[in-house]
What we know:
Layout: E1 3-7, E2 12-17, H1 22-28, E3 39-42, H2 48-59, E4 63-67, E5 72-76, E6 84-85, H3 87-90, H4 100-107, E7 109-113, H5 126-134, E8 138-142, E9 145-149, E10 159-161, H6 167-178, E11 183-187, H7 193-204, E12 208-210, E13 217-220, E14 228-231, H8 236-249, E15 251-256, H9 264-273, E16 275-279, E17 283-288, E18 298-299, H10 311-318, E19 324-328, H11 338-344, E20 348-352, E21 355-359, E22 368-370, H12 374-386, E23 390-394, H13 397-402, H14 406-411, E24 416-420
Parallel strand pairs: 2-15, 3-14, 6-7, 10-11, 18-19, 22-23
Antiparallel strand pairs: 1-23, 1-24, 3-5, 4-5, 7-9, 8-9, 11-13, 12-13, 15-17, 16-17, 19-21, 20-21
The structure holds ligand EPZ.
The site of ligand EPZ has 24 residues, from helix 1, helix 5, helix 6 and helix 12.
Amino acid sequence: MDSILVRxxxxxxxxxxxxxxxxxxxxxxxxxxxxxxxxxxTNAPRLSDIATMTQLxxxxxxxxxxxxxxxxxxxxxxxxxxxxxxYDIVRKMRASxxxxxxxxxxxxxxxxxxxxxxxxxxxxxxxxxxxMEALGAExxxxxxxxxxxxxxxxxxxxxxxxxxxxVGATENALMAATLARGTTVIKNAAREPEIVDLxxxxxxxxxxIDGEGTSTITIQGVDRLHGATHPVVADRIELGTYMLVPxxxxxxxxxxxxxxxxxxxxxxxxxxxGVSVTETERGLKVSRRGDxxxxxxVVTEPFPGFPTDLQAQMMALLCTAEGTSVLEERIFExxxxxxxxxxxxxxxxxxxxxxxxxxxxxxxxGARVMATDLRASxxxxxxxxxxxGETVVSRVYHLDRGYEKVEEKLRACGAQIERVRA
Length: 422
Ligand code: EPZ
């Protein structure tokens, strides 16, 4: 198994290009199932999760080709031959559940494995199921698989009122409703930029959608969708992660392609901690105002709140802050696995349930640490960049799920980082 070796070496300076969003791409790809005509995505990130979604779509009979070194995904679903998302793929990547809505909407039936456990929380899919049922689907759980069927072969529009905000369930409902008979209203919908991006892509395919980016989305079902070409929105989590590089190490980094509206709540916290974020013609420029950041409290919330996917990285920064910070994780029940690893690097963190209290220390120290999930892995790299001495982060396959060319991007700013192949 590969590991990443980092030697902390002071302030970093440079430009980092931000890729297309993993989590947008993972929902845009299943949208191809809604049409017999080709869907082409540009600005796609090159990540192992995208390869897994490619494999899943291909297993259903879709054609998926990566062009221009994978940055363009040319997809066609004219010949869907299989309607079962197999356990072996779904267990590797929970976003596989996003084929449920499109398959049901298109052909009136789908069989999707339940994903099983996850490192950051239980992550059930009951809201996806309930949304499909609201649209008229009959769903039965057999042998670990959801067997879903639309009576008469077509879903029908309905009001879907989510009891809590779910990004994935909103995406599934939105995709399914585009081809349902009549009007669907999604209440308490997620407002993430990835939802807006999906709605824009579906609209380019001929869907009739209003209200994306707000808590109520209205969809008027149409008989068919056509082909389209759509650019994937910039990855706000990759953006936020690289904004933390000058915050934790000093120096100055310009994140090319970054936009303030993607990271509003996060940029506000950085400002309160003593980190300047300014908009430039090409992106966002970030630098630390003093020698050390100040402690700030953070609560994770659905968009436009502080994203759970930046909590681990923010914790790495706050480990080096002056003062004590409290981080409250409200989205996932087990998302502090990075805390004991950061502690191995000299951080002072107490975790009680969903709350972590971080007492800042003047300096972190390099150590051997282990990545437990995607965002945890990059939080350890951030900590390592600011630490004295050498850090080895193992289990970096987690990193490859969501960060493209991380060593190259950081090296371009002067970081000493290399991948050690096992
Ligand atoms: C998406 O996951 C992202 N993944 C996650 O990114 C992200 O952390 C999460 O949204 C929250 O922003 C993708 O987009 C592929 P949810 P998703 O449904 O859709 C509960 C990363 O690091 N819930 O919004 O699965 C759930 O357990 C990742 O890139 C139910 O109870 O998240 C959680 O507590 C990891 N029942 C909350 O809702 C359901 O049926 C929000 O989850 C669905 C969700």
